[in-house]
Design goal:
Layout lengths: L6 E6 L3 H13 L5 E7 L14 H4 L18 E5 L3 E5 L4 E4 L4 E3 L2 E4 L3 E3 L12 E3 L3 H14 L4 E5 L3 H12 L3 E6 L11 H13 L3 E4 L3 E6 L6 E5 L4 E4 L1 E4 L3 E3 L2 H5 L10 E3 L10 E3 L4 E3 L2 E2 L3 H15 L13 E5 L2 E7 L9 E7 L4 E7 L6 E7 L5 H4 L11 H5 L16 E3 L4 E2 H9 L5 H8 L9 H10 L16 H11 L4 H8 L8 H11 L16 H5 L2 E2 L5 E3 L10 H14 L2 E4 L5 E6 L4 H10 L12 E6 L13 H12 L8 E6 L13 E6 L2 E6 L11 E7 L1 H18 L6 H7 L3 H10 L6 H14 L3 H6 L2 H4 L16 E4 L6 E4 L16
Parallel strand pairs: 1-2, 1-7, 2-3, 7-19, 9-16, 10-11, 10-16, 11-12, 18-20, 33-34, 34-35
Antiparallel strand pairs: 4-5, 5-6, 8-17, 13-14, 14-15, 20-21, 22-23, 23-26, 24-25, 25-26, 27-28, 29-30, 30-32, 31-32, 35-36, 36-37, 38-39
Helix pairs in contact: 1-7, 10-11, 13-15, 20-22, 20-23
C-alpha cells in the first residue's frame, strides 16, 4: 500500500492495554493500512504493571518489560517515550505533544489508564508520602525505606488488592507495614466478611498490622522531627517513617475532558460497545474507557477493549461482550480468589460456606435458588478449585455445592465444563477453542499457547490446560530428555534398586545415545543422592556442570567465588581473620551473602585449592554454594540472646546445617530457623522453615524466592527436637526421590495429588509405610558425609584438574582482569565474551 493511502492512528498511553492494541492491530493489518504513533508519558516502554510487586527485591525493570514493547524492526510503529499528548484538536484532527510536535491523525486511541487516588487527608502531600503505581514510585519508596532503616514502620492507606501488594512490598524492603482500611474488612470488593476475617488473620501472621473500619485523619511530622505521626479516625496514632496511598484508582481522562469528549459521572471516557467515544474518530480502551458508563479496572477486560478497537479500525464490527471480573492472586503467599456474583446480590441467591478457621481456609459458593446453577464464589487460603469452578459460572453444577468445596468431596474434572466455558479470561479463550486446537495437533502446553494465546498472560489457566490435554487423550511425556524415556523419579528408583554407579552403564541399559547437558547433571545428582561418593570420583566428574566440576561458582569474567560454610551464620574471630587475610593475599572481593555467609569473589581456578587449604586449616569447609544441594540454614539469635526468643534457634540451625550439608537434591535447598513468630530469619521463605513456639517448633515446608515466590505452609506444629528432625529427614528424602529435575519444593508439593495434605500424610502419618526407609537413607548420608574441598586436597588426581591451562599448569589466565579504581572491585572483560548462562546453570546463588 502506498504511503498516501496509509492512515495514522495515534495511541495516547503505552501501558499494558495500549501495547496490546498495537500488537493486535499490527498482527491483523496484513496490508499495512495503518501507521501507528505511540505517545508514552513514562520514560520506559510498556511493562507488566500487574507484576509490579515482583520488581521489589530484584530491582530489575527489564524483567517486567512486555515482549516486543519497543517494536524493533517494525517501520509502521513509532514509539515516543517520555512524550505525552497535551491537546487534541478534534476539528483539525491533530494532536500537540509535550515536545511541541503536531501529529495529524485519522484515529486516536486513548489508553491513558488510571492514576492512584490520594484522599484529601491533611498532610497527604508531604515528601514522605507516596503512591504505588509505577516503577518510579517503587524506586522512591525504596529510597525512603533505606533511609529509614530496617524495621521502620510504613503505613499503607487502603486494604484492597493494591494496598496489600504495597504492604508486601514494604515488608520485602525490611519495613514493618501497617494497613489502614476504611471498610470493615480487607479486600472488601473481592471477599465477604468471613473471607475477610480469614485473610486478616493470615496476613497478620505474616507480620502485617491491620487496622480495619478506620480512616486516616491526618499525617503530621513527629514531635522530634524524625518521621511522621499518622492519626486515625478512632483517635489512635501510628508513628511511621513513610505513608503509601493505595486507596483505589481513578481514570486518567483529563485530556478527554480538555477535548470536550463526554465523560462519565464518576470519570472515564464514555464509549459505546465498540469503544467509540462521542467523537467517532476517537476510541478509548482499558481503565480510562467507561463502556456505556462503566469503567473496568482489570487487565483482562482491558485487553478485550484493545482487541475490539483493532478490529474496528480494520472494518470489523466487534462489540464489548461484558467483563469477567474474576480475580485469583497470591497475596503475601495467601491464596485469594473471587469470581462471579461473589457477594450474592442475585435475587434468591443461596450461599454455601465452608469456614475452617483451624486450617486457615474459607470457601463460599453462591448458587441459584434451586442450588443447581453456580453464580459465583470466594476462596481464601486455598484457591486450588478456582480453575475448575470459575468457568462453571452460569452453568449447572455437576455435583452438590458443598461437595465441590469440601476437602473430602467431589473432584471437578475438565470434562464437567461446557464448551463455551471461558478457560483463559485474560485472552477470552473458551474450552471449545482449546479442545479444537488439541484436535488439530496441539499436543502440549506450548502448542496450545501458540494456537490460542491461552495461558500467555497471567498463566493462571495453565493447570486447566493440562487437564484438557489429559482429557483429550494426549499422553504427557515425563521423559527426562531425548536420551531417557524415564522421568527423573523413575531413574532415581532404577539407580537405587540396581546399584548402578556409572552414567555409561545407566544409559547403555536404560537409555540411548551419549547423553546431554540435561541428563548428565541430573544423573550425577541422583548418583550423589544415593551414595557418599565424591562428585569428582571417576566418571562422575565428567557429568558435572561447571560449578560442580570446580566446586565453586563461575563468575562473568571466568573467575570463581568461594563460599565457606558458616552453620547458622556463626563464625569465630580466627576464622574471620583467616577469610580477611585470604582476601588480601589473593586480591579478592568480599560480600556478605543473604544466607549469613561471606563470599570471596575473583579467585582463578588454579588458586582454588590453595584458598581451600587455608580455609580447611582454619576449621571451615565447603558451603556448597555451587551445588543443587543444601545451601544455608539462616537463623536469628534466638533465646540465647533475644528477649523475644522462644527457643535456641541458632543451636537448631547449626544442628540442621551440619546434618544436611552436602545433601544433593533436584534443586538447591535453603532452610531457616526463627526463634519466635517475629520471623527475623524469614523461615517461611525457605524450602524448610522452622519457627519456635512456647511448646517447641512449628515446621513449614515449600517456600522459595525466585521468579515464582512461595510462602512455606505449615506441615506440623509444636514439635519437640527429635520429632522435628525426623519429619525433616522424611520430607527432604521424599522430595529428593520423587521431584522432577530442577523442581523446587514448592512446585513439587503443588504437583502432587493432594498437595500439602498428601505430603503431611506421607511425612507425619507414614501413609506409604516408607518413613523408616527415608530416615535410614538420611542417616547413611549423615554418617558418610565428608567435606568435598578436603577430599580434593587429599587426592592428587583431583587436584590436577585445577589449572587454567592443561599444557601450562603454572600459567595464569591472561584474560582475567579487575578494576578496583572505585569503591568496589569489579571484573573487567578483556576482549572476551561473557560466560553464557544456560537454563541448567541459572539461579546458582
Amino acid at each position: 500500500m502506498k504511503d498516501t493511502q496509509r492512515k495514522t492512528v495515534v495511541v495516547v498511553g503505552h501501558g499494558m492495554v495500549g501495547h496490546r492494541f498495537v500488537e493486535a492491530l499490527r498482527s491483523r493489518d496484513t496490508e499495512g493500512q495503518w501507521q501507528v504513533v505511540v505517545l508514552s508519558e513514562e520514560p520506559r516502554a510498556a511493562y507488566d504493571r500487574v507484576g509490579l510487586s515482583s520488581y521489589v527485591g530484584a530491582w530489575d525493570a527489564t524483567a517486567l518489560a512486555l515482549p516486543g514493547n519497543e517494536y524493533a524492526g517494525d517501520d509502521l510503529v513509532e514509539l515516543r517515550l517520555g512524550e505525552r499528548a497535551e491537546n487534541i484538536d478534534r476539528d483539525g484532527r491533530k494532536i500537540t505533544t509535550s515536545g511541541g510536535d503536531v501529529i495529524g491523525y485519522d484515529a486516536v486511541v486513548l489508553a491513558t489508564g488510571s492514576y492512584a487516588f490520594v484522599p484529601p487527608v491533611p498532610g497527604h502531600d508531604r515528601p514522605e508520602c507516596f503512591v504505588y503505581r509505577t516503577i518510579e514510585d517503587l524506586d522512591g519508596i525504596r529510597a525512603a525505606a533505606q533511609a529509614a532503616g530496617p524495621g521502620a514502620v510504613g503505613v499503607v492507606v487502603g486494604g484492597g488488592l493494591l494496598g496489600l501488594e504495597a504492604a508486601n512490598a514494604l515488608r520485602l524492603m525490611g519495613m514493618t507495614p501497617h494497613v489502614v482500611e476504611f471498610a470493615p474488612r480487607l479486600m472488601p470488593a473481592q471477599v465477604d466478611e468471613g473471607g475477610g476475617a480469614i485473610l486478616e488473620r493470615l496476613v497478620s501472621d505474616l507480620g502485617l498490622h491491620v487496622h480495619t473500619g478506620v480512616g486516616t485523619a491526618a499525617i503530621e511530622p513527629a514531635e522530634d522531627g524524625a518521621g511522621l505521626r499518622v492519626s486515625l479516625s478512632d483517635e489512635s496514632v501510628i508513628d511511621a517513617s513513610l505513608v503509601v496511598f493505595s486507596a483505589g484508582i481513578r481514570p486518567r481522562d483529563e485530556i478527554a475532558r480538555t477535548a470536550g469528549l463526554e465523560v462519565g459521572a464518576r470519570g472515564g471516557v464514555v464509549t459505546d460497545l465498540g469503544l467509540r467515544t462521542s467523537d467517532p474518530n476517537i476510541y478509548a480502551v482499558g481503565e480510562v474507557a467507561a463502556v456505556e458508563g462503566v469503567c473496568y479496572g482489570l487487565v483482562a477486560p482491558g485487553y478485550t477493549t484493545a482487541e475490539i478497537v483493532a478490529d474496528r479500525l480494520l472494518g470489523g464490527t466487534g462489540e464489548f461482550p461484558g467483563a469477567d471480573l474474576s480475580t485469583k492472586l497470591k497475596l503475601l503467599g495467601v491464596d485469594v480468589a473471587s469470581f462471579g456474583d461473589a457477594h450474592a446480590t442475585t435475587e434468591g441467591a443461596l450461599s454455601v460456606v465452608l469456614h475452617d478457621a483451624a486450617k486457615g481456609t474459607y470457601a463460599k459458593l453462591v448458587v441459584s435458588d434451586d442450588a443447581k446453577t453456580l453464580l459465583g464464589g470466594i476462596l481464601v487460603g486455598d484457591a486450588s478449585a478456582y480453575a475448575a469452578l470459575r468457568p462453571l459460572v452460569g452453568s449447572e453444577l455437576p455435583a452438590e455445592p458443598a461437595a465441590l468445596i469440601s476437602p473430602a468431596g467431589a473432584e471437578l474434572g475438565a470434562d464437567a465444563l461446557p464448551d463455551d466455558a471461558q478457560i483463559c479470561s485474560c485472552n477470552n479463550v473458551s474450552k471449545g477453542a482449546i479442545c479444537g486446537a488439541i484436535a488439530e495437533g496441539a499436543c502440549d502446553i506450548a502448542g496450545i499457547k501458540s494456537c490460542t494465546s491461552a495461558g500467555t498472560s497471567c498463566g493462571g489457566c495453565v493447570p486447566m490446560l493440562k487437564k484438557l490435554l489429559e482429557q483429550s487423550g494426549v499422553e504427557m511425556s515425563s521423559a527426562l530428555c531425548e536420551h531417557f524415556s524415564q522421568s527423573r523419579q523413575e531413574l532415581f528408583h532404577i539407580v537405587a534398586s540396581t546399584g548402578i554407579r556409572k552414567f555409561s552403564e545407566l544409559i547403555a541399559r536404560y537409555g540411548t545415545g551419549m547423553g546431554c547437558d540435561i541428563c548428565k547433571p541430573a544423573v550425577a545428582s541422583i548418583l550423589a543422592s544415593t551414595s557418599n561418593e565424591h562428585i569428582l570420583d571417576g566418571e562422575q566428574a565428567a557429568l558435572q556442570d561447571t560449578n560442580d566440576h570446580f566446586l565453586a561458582n563461575l563468575q562473568k569474567n571466568g573467575t570463581y567465588s568461594v563460599v565457606p560454610r558458616m552453620p547458622g551464620g556463626e563464625v569465630t574471630a580466627d576464622q574471620l581473620i583467616t577469610i580477611g587475610q585470604i582476601a588480601k593475599d589473593f586480591g579478592l572481593y568480599l560480600k556478605v551473602t543473604g544466607g549469613q555467609r561471606i563470599d570471596l569473589f575473583g579467585a582463578r581456578v588454579e588458586q582454588l585449592p590453595v584458598i581451600w587449604q587455608r580455609l580447611v586449616d582454619a576449621g571451615m569447609e565447603s558451603g556448597h554454594a555451587y551445588g543443587k544441594s543444601l545451601r544455608t540454614v539462616k537463623s536469628c539469635v534466638g533465646s540465647t540472646w533475644c528477649r523475644y526468643g522462644q527457643q535456641d534457634s541458632v543451636g537448631m540451625a547449626v544442628l540442621l546445617e551440619k546434618r544436611y550439608r552436602g545433601l544433593r537434591s533436584p534443586h538447591k535447598l535453603k532452610l531457616g530457623v526463627s526463634g519466635c513468630a517475629r520471623e527475623c530469619a524469614e523461615a517461611r521463605g525457605k524450602d524448610v522453615g522452622v519457627i519456635a513456639t512456647e511448646n517447641g517448633w512449628n515446621l513449614y515446608v515449600g517456600g522459595n524466592g525466585g521468579l515464582t515466590p512461595r510462602h512455606a505452609v505449615l506441615l506440623a506444629g509444636d514439635l519437640d527436637d527429635e520429632t522435628l528432625i525426623r519429619y525433616i529427614d522424611r520430607y527432604l528424602m521424599f522430595y529428593i526421590r520423587t521431584a522432577d529435575r530442577l523442581q523446587r519444593t514448592a512446585a513439587w508439593q503443588e504437583s502432587l495429588d493432594g498437595g500439602i495434605d498428601y505430603v503431611r500424610q506421607v511425612v507425619c502419618e507414614d501413609s506409604l509405610g516408607i518413613a523408616t526407609e527415608l530416615e535410614e537413607t538420611m542417616a547413611r548420608h549423615v554418617a558418610g558425609y565428608r567435606d568435598e574441598w578436603a577430599a580434593v586436597l587429599d587426592d592428587p588426581a583431583k587436584l590436577a584438574r585445577f589449572v587454567s591451562f592443561v599444557n601450562a599448569p603454572e600459567q595464569a589466565d591472561p584474560t582475567i582482569a579487575f578494576d578496583d579504581s572505585g569503591e568496589r572491585k569489579v571484573p573487567v572483560l578483556l576482549g572476551m565474551p561473557e560466560i553464557p548462562v544456560t537454563a541448567a546453570a541459572t539461579d546458582g546463588k
